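Observation: inputs received (chain + 2-(butylsulfanyl)adenosine).
Thought: call the complex predictor directly.
Action: predict_structure
Action Input:
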Amino acid sequence: MTEAVAAGQEAARLREQLDTWNYQYHVLDAPSVPDAEYDRCLKRLQALEAQYPALCVPESPTQRVGATPISQFAPVQHEMPMLSLDNAFDSEELQDFNRRVLDRLGQEPSALLEFACEPKLDGIAVSLLYRDGRLERGATRGDGSTGEDITHNVRTVASVPLRLRGSGFPGVLEVRGEIYLPRAGFEQLNATACERGEKTFVNPRNAAAGSLRQLDARITATRPLQMCCYSVGLYEGGELPGRHSDVLDRLHAWGLRINPESRVVQGIDACESYYAGLAARRASLPYDIDGIVYKVNDLGLQQRLGFVSRAPRWAIARKFPAQEEMTTLLAVEFQVGRTGAITPVARLEPVFVGGVTVSNATLHNADEVERLDLRIGDTVMVRRAGDVIPQVVAVVLDRRPAGAAPVHFPQRCPVCGSVLERAADEAVLRCMGGLVCQAQQKAAIRHFVARRALDVDGLGDKLVDQLVDQGLVRTVAGLYTVPRSAWLALDRMGDKSVDKLLAALEQSKQTSLPRFIYALGIREVGESTAGNLARHFGSWEALAAASEDALLAVPDVGPIVADHLRQFLDSADSLAVVQALREAGVCWPNIEVLPAEALPLSGQTWVVTGKLETVGRSEAKAHLEALGARVAGSVSAKTTTVVAGPGAGSKLGKATELDIPVLDEAALLELLRSHGVLL
Ligand code: IVH
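Observation:
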């Protein structure tokens, strides 16, 4: 065999292997090899193709990275128009749709039709044309009959196969679906844009559209876009199954990504249940959806029902409440946080968005206000997705009233008048008033008495405001010295409530070292870091005396946290507050410090995968490390235990395969509690 023939065979093997791994990773969501192995094979294939250019076929996995830029988008005529969908905004409209369909089909109003239910992805509709299994063309929907040729960009999307898998596909197969940007990819993209001082995208949909509208596919290739298929357009030279859901299964078998949330149900009431189920999980899906699409599943019935103008009679989009709405910016106010951070807050004309009425939205910091180029009186786009705090995402410039006033950032703290400073590497302005600033005093007290800190029951925000406004308390230590008569003089405080509050304050004095450290409200020191510090040093004295290097040895403590800790521990004011608290009787038992090798999980390697509801993955990792475990990213024979939450994928599979013990979240919490890591 000549060398060239051998190279050809090796290249074919590598292509096959890389395609399979790509399919497992991007279509099945089940990665089977480490990235490094994929990269090694890709490199080897690139080397072979460089040596024998004839081996470099267009559907080679090396050809995804983006070719030379094109000069313009060529128009594409859709032989079969790409339609849109009618909308139903409530159950009644959905029931109407069902009645219309049954009526047209001559069926009883109570008949149960079979429907395919699918999430309505909020991305860009595209058409992929495969000829003899090879991707020939990718196009946008455009106006439905003429779109744009975006083949060069579509080729860079990892879940778009350049070649179909398996066999039995029609010679000509036009697949339709949505290209979208998962939320994580969107956030990453905007974070990078922010760092570079570039314009950020308003939402994942705009980012996906912008990414596909690139003439230079090398840019598109850097965007983590995904493709999900939802129908077949044109096909020739082959047969397809008679039910929509079976067609989708076929597409999946040919290597195309379909939505794993899709279901087949009987009757419109089951469609309603599907809607309710997905609406409840909407915020936790990894991508944006704006509703549910219901399709009559039988393709024969679809044919009989046909179309009206631009939309099929056999499908409907049941929309979710909008996550974006327009409203007017009435004013911008400035709030002062616990650490002095000044946050601009937009006061808005109340608007119903994402299922609630929103009248305030955070504007984050001065950079954000500048980026948005906000003026008072502007019409703004407000977004509230899931439980996320409402955001102002853009200004509708062509609605700007004449003479709209720009937003002026204060020069001094709006509460105490102290100077504001902006650290070199930070976007936020901070009030330098520290303990002098009443806003910071209030926020520090609210934090100190919170349930997860010293847990003083009954000391709500209104009381805290009065205490500070009347000058009764300046620091958290002052809470313990307010005389009974002063408590009684506060609004709505009678004998009984004062007794209760004094008892709660008394009780709060018996605390633990982790709670105490957390309650101090040191910047960047959350509950889990406070716990790690407490277990590492064992006593307040040891922590207070720790050098920066000693602090850095604590799990979860990096240079920034260490710096904030040192600043706190070096400040005479802070230490005076700690001293006053101890004099007031606040106390805690010291913790026995174990050498690293004596920690309960030392020498063990753990892996955390899937979604953890209570602690979250990174917090779980920090807790496990505090107990001496090493937390690794992948499962191997050396793994001691795997913690798996819902949605765990290949790592869980591997653990089962290797017979490695698996804990669910409840068991993990139990373990952490038994070691005193969680309360
Ligand atoms: S079916 C004739 N299925 O919604 C049926 N569309 O408002 C046409 N979309 O342009 C499309 N998810 O971009 C269908 N599961 C889904 C979809 C979906 C999102 C988009 C698509 C279409 C638009 C229509």
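Thought: report the result.
Final Answer: The radius of gyration is 30 Å. The first strand starts at residue 75 and ends at 77.
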